[in-house]
């Protein structure tokens, strides 16, 4: 297959003597990355507190009706039948309740269980109570304290439709009903739904572990760079992005431009996925190909027809591990991440490929003559607009972007549909 091959004919120095690799297209590279992770990591049981960021390995089903009983949706009175009603007590959330008869009402708080026999809830602001015998009306207080036994009247029409302001049992779901499919990322909202439906634990895929190796003698981690040195932008940028894709980052370290150091770092990494930045091209200190060969790696993708980010790679390592090699330029590395790292991590996490939802190009989106282009964009009133500062070494455009537009070779005219890739 074009762009998919194995490293072979390795010399004693660890350098492949021959490599007949041709760049694969951007769609091919994305498919190859997902194929590399075609067997998701095993399922585990995780407590709700530990499940955030994992991916459901089985569908989430309700363990109870939700709500589990008829519930008051408002503060007021639970009433039975047509009014006026004789008030007979109060029920608060979390308290047991006794049945009420036709013509009776009980003061009720939001979330409290509706007493058996109640037909509706009269909102507090829509009712008033008067003592038995027709004494002057007295409006119930805003604190929820009524004036004791008396007659309750509905203001206005004098009636309450059956079911008014009642959340009936099972309104949201019934016990056993499937709520979310396998492959759903566990977000805070998913945790809340699972808890509401009675779950204490979730069956999720183990998160793929990732070690980030930042390569290069020219990088500094703090302060102002000088004398040919540059700040490491990818060390802070990539971990949150990889985490959002389902990964568990177990390490991040700086590796100098040394073949032996890089070989050992790749060979001995305990991570499911090693992500490197820099060293993917053919410069005098670009040792990644040689280090991969010496570590027993097998190239799956070596170079992708995409701008920026062309010299990216994907390899299989011994023990079922993988390595994603990203270019060293910041925006090029981001392009490599969305092309190879994220599809691989999604697949290993058990997540389906995101659906492509084309939007409209508001203006001409310039493309490369032969390669796919990933372009930082924002959404305007008439559609997608490109941003400036989109060079391989730039991050200013990405920092302003709402997405990356996938522009096919040759570009897109105004009004054309364009696929967008989300940016965290």
TrEMBL record:
Class of this enzyme: transferase
Region span, Disordered: 1-25
Cofactor(s), by name: Mg(2+)
InterPro entries given in the database record: MoaB/Mog-like_dom_sf, MoaB/Mog_dom, MoeA-like, MoeA_C_domain_IV_sf, MoeA_linker/N, MoeA_linker/N_sf
Keyword Magnesium: yes
EC code: 2.10.1.1
Superkingdom: Bacteria
Pathway: Cofactor biosynthesis; molybdopterin biosynthesis
UniProt keyword Magnesium, yes or no: yes
Catalytic activity: adenylyl-molybdopterin + molybdate = Mo-molybdopterin + AMP + H(+)
Role description: Catalyzes the insertion of molybdate into adenylated molybdopterin with the concomitant release of AMP.
Name of the protein this chain belongs to: Molybdopterin molybdenumtransferase
